[in-house]
C-alpha cells in the first residue's frame, strides 16, 4: 500500500512519474490502449483518457477527484471507482491518496493522485499482444516531438483539438437541437425533455419508454394523450430525483422503471375492463351452454 501524500506536496508528485517528457508518456498511453482497449468497456477507456489528459502539467501524474471524473465521463462515482480498480489490475495506473495538511481544513482525505504506469518496465505484460513493426519506408510516419502532446491522450484541456478529417465522425459528434427529433416522438415529450437533452438524447429516452411498452405487451396505444402525459410526468420525476441528488443509478434506468409501472397499470386496467365486460355478459344471460343445460 502506498503511503499517503500531502495534498500540496508537488515535489512528491513529480517523483512518482516514470517519465521524463511528454513523448515518453504518449508512447506509454498508446501502448496501454493498444494492449488493453479490447478488454475495457467504453466508460473505462473514457476514464483512462481523462486521466491521461490531466497528466501533462506534471508529466504522467494527474490530480482528480472521483466526483469530478464521474461528472465528466457521465457515470456515477461508484462506477468510476470500479473502473479505477480495473485499470490498476491491468497495471495501467497507480493510485495514491492524499491527506489535507495545509489550509484552513486539515485532516481527512484530499484529491487522488493517478500515475500512468510505464509498460516498458514490465515486458511480460506485452507478451500476449505486441505492437507490430512496419518496415515499409513508405508508411513510416514522422516522429512526434518530445514536448508535443497527443491530441486525445495527453493533451491539456486548454489546447484546441485538431480538426476531424473524417466527415462521418464530424457528423456523429455534432449536437442537434430538439427540432431534429423524429416526428414519431410525441411533441409533448420533446417539449419536456429539450431543456435538458439534445435531439439524440430525447430520441434515446423515448426509446426507453417504447422498450417498457413492448416489455409489458399491452394493447394500449403508447401515443395516446393520457399515456404520453404520464410518461412526461415520469420524466419530470426522474429529472427531479437527479437534480436533487436522490438518484442512485442512471436517469435512463430510473425513467425506464417508471414507464414500466405506467404500462403495468394500463395492463391491469385492461384486464379489469375485460373482467367487468365478462361479468356484464353473464348478468345479461350470455351464459355458457353447459351452465344452462338441464
Features:
2 domains, 11 helices, Arc Repressor Mutant, subunit A, elongated, four-stranded mixed sheet, 49% helix, alpha+beta, 294 residues, 7% strand
Structure description:
It is a single chain. The protein is an alpha+beta fold and 294 residues long. The protein folds into two domains: 139 residues, Winged helix-like DNA-binding domain superfamily/Winged helix DNA-binding domain (Arc Repressor Mutant, subunit A); 105 residues. It contains eleven helices and four strands. The chain has a four-stranded mixed β-sheet, with helices on both faces. The protein is elongated. Keywords: DNA-binding. InterPro entries: WH-like_DNA-bd_sf. GO terms for molecular function: DNA binding. This is DNA-binding Lrp family transcriptional regulator.
Short summary:
This is DNA-binding Lrp family transcriptional regulator. GO terms for molecular function: DNA binding. The chain has 294 residues and is of the alpha+beta class.
Taken from the alpha-carbon principal axes, the silhouette is: elongated
Q: Provide the low-confidence segments as ranges.
A: 1-8, 123-141, 156-161
Rounded to the nearest angstrom, the distance between the terminal CA atoms is 88 Å
Count up the domains: 2
What would you call the structural class? alpha+beta
Total strands = 4
Keywords: DNA-binding
Protein name: DNA-binding Lrp family transcriptional regulator
Organism: Geomicrobium halophilum
GO molecular function, one term: DNA binding
Amino acid at each position: 500500500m502506498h503511503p499517503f501524500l500531502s495534498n500540496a506536496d508537488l515535489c512528491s508528485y513529480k517523483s512518482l512519474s516514470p517519465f521524463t517528457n511528454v513523448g515518453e508518456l504518449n508512447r506509454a498511453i498508446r501502448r496501454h490502449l493498444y494492449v488493453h482497449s479490447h478488454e475495457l468497456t467504453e466508460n473505462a477507456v473514457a476514464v483512462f483518457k481523462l486521466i491521461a489528459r490531466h497528466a501533462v502539467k506534471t508529466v504522467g501524474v494527474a490530480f482528480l477527484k472521483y466526483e469530478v471524473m464521474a461528472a465528466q465521463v457521465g457515470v456515477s462515482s461508484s462506477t468510476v471507482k470500479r473502473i479505477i480498480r480495473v485499470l490498476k489490475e491491468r497495471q495501467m495506473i497507480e493510485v495514491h491518496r492524499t491527506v489535507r495538511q495545509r489550509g484552513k481544513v486539515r485532516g481527512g482525505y484530499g484529491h487522488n493522485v493517478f500515475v500512468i504506469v510505464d509498460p516498458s518496465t514490465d515486458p511480460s505484460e506485452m507478451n500476449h499482444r505486441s505492437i507490430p513493426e512496419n518496415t515499409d519506408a513508405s508508411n513510416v510516419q514522422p516522429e512526434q516531438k518530445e514536448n508535443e502532446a497527443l491530441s486525445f491522450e495527453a493533451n491539456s484541456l486548454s489546447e484546441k483539438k485538431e480538426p476531424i478529417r473524417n466527415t462521418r465522425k464530424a457528423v456523429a459528434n455534432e449536437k442537434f437541437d430538439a427540432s431534429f427529433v423524429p416526428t414519431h416522438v410525441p411533441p409533448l415529450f420533446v417539449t419536456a425533455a429539450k431543456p435538458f437533452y439534445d435531439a439524440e438524447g430525447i430520441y434515446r429516452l423515448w426509446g426507453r419508454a417504447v422498450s417498457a411498452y413492448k416489455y409489458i405487451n399491452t394493447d394500449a396505444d403508447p401515443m395516446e394523450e393520457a399515456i404520453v402525459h404520464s410518461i412526461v410526468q415520469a420524466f419530470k420525476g426522474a429529472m427531479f430525483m437527479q437534480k436533487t441528488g436522490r438518484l442512485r443509478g442512471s436517469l435512463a434506468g430510473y425513467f425506464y422503471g417508471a414507464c414500466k409501472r405506467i404500462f403495468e397499470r394500463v395492463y391491469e386496467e385492461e384486464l379489469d375492463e375485460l373482467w367487468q365486460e365478462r361479468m356484464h355478459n353473464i348478468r345479461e344471460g350470455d351464459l355458457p351452454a353447459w351452465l344452462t343445460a338441464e
